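In line with agreed milestones, work has continued on tokenised descriptions of protein folds. One protein thus recorded appears below exactly as we store it:

>
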Amino acid sequence: MITQDKIDRINELARKAKEEGLSEEELAERDTLRKEYIAAFRANLKAQLDSIKFVDSVEEAEAIEESIETELKEEIAELETSIDELKHIKIDKDKIN
């Protein structure tokens, strides 16, 4: 995974390359960061493409959509229950120390 710091560094090196040029070390760093960025981009694209499901009919697509909606609603309900339970927990500071 490429971090925002690395993306910022890629952009910084690109600006410097346009303005004054890069040293050998900076060129090597830029190449390494670019390769890492491209690898992360490809991995992300592959994951997105792998998650695509082809269906033969509108009915099948609607059934998949309904199934996903049901799963999401169940997950939301579980999270809301957990949040409600956490709201009722009272912490006694004296017992912690």
Notes: Helices lie at 4-19, 24-50, 58-87, 93-96. The chain has a mean pLDDT of 89. The longest helix spans residues 58-87.
